[in-house]
Write a structure and sequence with these properties.
It is built from 2 helices and 3 strands, in the order βαββα. It is globular and about 40 Å long. Helix 1 packs antiparallel against helix 2. The longest helix is centred in the last third of the chain and has 20 residues. The protein is an alpha+beta fold. The protein has a single domain, classed as Transposase IS200-like (Alpha-Beta Plaits, 2-Layer Sandwich).
């Protein structure tokens, strides 16, 4: 049975989580990765009114509770966040492909 289509809403916060490929640990120091996420959260908040309520960074995944604006849905924001973090980490670690 296919998954139901996600209905985006700006009324309630989302619990978002993402894990690295193959459950591997992140290829970068957690302090550096934490700073990268902080920079991106600040930028996304400033540009797209993306509100981060809580963030937990683990060894191979993260959890995020956040709210989106009416103009920019969760899919748009996560595409920006994941893409930018992946580019930064891959550039710093000289890796290619998925993060």
């Amino acid at each position: 049975m296919p998954r139901k289509k996600l209905i985006y809403s700006n009324l309630y916060p989302y619990h978002i989580f993402a894990r690295s490929n193959n459950k591997d640990c992140f290829y970068i120091d957690k302090d550096q990765l934490w700073r990268m996420f902080q920079e991106q959260f600040f930028e996304l908040n400033f540009k797209f009114n993306f509100q981060v309520h809580a963030f937990v960074l683990m060894d191979n995944h993260y959890h995020l509770i956040a709210s989106c604006s009416q103009e920019h849905d969760l899919g748009f924001i996560m595409h920006k966040l994941q893409g930018r973090i992946s580019l930064k980490v891959n550039k710093k670690t000289k890796r290619m492909n998925h993060f």
